[in-house]
């Protein structure tokens, strides 16, 4: 591991969007990204954000939206991997009453909800080939129809998409249509992983702790040992892992968050995994065991959700729902 200079980052904990748009005090990689975001926000062109899981791709998308002329209009985030395959058309484009079983009324789709604003397609490489064709048609014509409808509706949205996969590799392995990619990849952005961002982990850690203190009326601080431990850790789960680590340490601390709490939190969250086997203590609650098994399987497949879902014998949508629930649980624990 390369030597790193310890910088507590205590004097540089800007607000979420300021962290990206005004990257003063952050790493050169983030300063470069901040400059790119300003250029992207000044246009209405499609943006394709690439970055590892947990790097904050949706935060980047929201920052572009907030800095654009569409900021007073909706920002609608769609998890492409969680869209129900049989109802995908209705979810994206809306449907008319009686257009299919269960369609008891006219419903708007994501395009209508985002009208005038930004439509964010997360995990876009998980979109089915059929939906890519229909989506491409909307991007090319600027119009669409609700399921069961005949009226042409105008799609007034700015499209931003994101993936933790390399776009070119996704085309090569058949996940993404090349013509669809050409429409999306007008402005490419890469969000660097936390391990490439020097002392940014400490800046973000202080931001997370400041938020927790403000929400709960506390004044907890980081112990020097924890600051050093956070600076030296590679954070394979990136910003999401860092945020959850700070939340866990905050919950366990009386006044000072210590490195021992950080290590304990990691050991509790990650069941020991050796040679493809998962070891859990006897008496582990069933729901926790299920959670650890799912997270360990996902880690085993290097974050590839499709492969993890296949190995677990569940649908990709089910896996996304479980992961979203785990993220919400971590946030609720910190807030309570």
TrEMBL record:
Transmembrane segments: none annotated. Pfam families: AAA_lid_14, HTH_8, Sigma54_activat. Keywords: ATP-binding, DNA-binding, Nucleotide-binding, Transcription, Transcription regulation. It comes from the Bacteria. One of its GO terms (biological process) is regulation of DNA-templated transcription. One of its GO terms (molecular function) is sequence-specific DNA binding. Residues 23-251 form the Sigma-54 factor interaction domain. This is Transcriptional regulatory protein ZraR. It comes from Achromobacter agilis.
């Amino acid at each position: 591991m390369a030597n790193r200079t310890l910088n507590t980052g205590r004097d540089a904990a800007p607000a979420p969007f300021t962290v990206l748009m005004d990257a003063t005090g952050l790493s050169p990689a983030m300063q470069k990204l901040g400059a790119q975001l300003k250029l992207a926000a000044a246009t209405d062109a499609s943006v394709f954000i690439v970055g590892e899981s947990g790097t904050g791709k949706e935060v980047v998308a929201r920052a572009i939206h907030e800095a654009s002329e569409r900021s007073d209009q909706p920002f609608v985030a769609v998890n492409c991997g969680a869209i129900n395959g049989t109802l995908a058309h209705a979810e994206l484009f809306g449907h008319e009453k009686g257009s299919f079983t269960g369609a008891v009324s006219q419903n708007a789709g994501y395009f209508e909800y985002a009208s005038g604003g930004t439509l964010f397609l997360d995990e876009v490489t998980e979109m089915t080939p059929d939906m890519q064709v229909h989506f491409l048609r909307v991007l090319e014509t600027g119009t669409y129809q609700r399921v069961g409808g005949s009226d042409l509706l105008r799609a007034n949205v700015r499209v931003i998409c994101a993936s933790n996969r390399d776009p070119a590799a996704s085309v090569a392995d058949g996940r993404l249509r090349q013509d669809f990619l050409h429409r999306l990849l007008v402005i490419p952005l890469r969000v660097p992983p936390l391990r490439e961002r020097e002392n940014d982990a400490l800046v973000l850690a202080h931001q997370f702790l400041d938020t927790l203190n403000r929400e709960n009326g506390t004044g907890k601080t980081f112990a020097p040992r924890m600051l050093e431990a956070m600076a030296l850790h590679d954070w394979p789960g990136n910003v999401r892992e860092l945020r959850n680590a700070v939340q866990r340490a905050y919950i366990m601390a009386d006044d000072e968050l210590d490195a021992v709490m950080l290590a304990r939190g990691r050991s509790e969250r990650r069941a020991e995994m050796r040679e493809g086997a998962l070891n859990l203590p006897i008496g582990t609650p069933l729901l926790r065991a299920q959670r650890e098994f799912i997270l360990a399987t996902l880690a085993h497949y290097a974050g590839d959700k499709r492969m993890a879902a296949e190995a677990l014998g569940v649908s990709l949508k089910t896996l996304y729902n479980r992961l979203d629930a785990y993220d919400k649980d971590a946030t609720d624990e910190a807030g309570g």
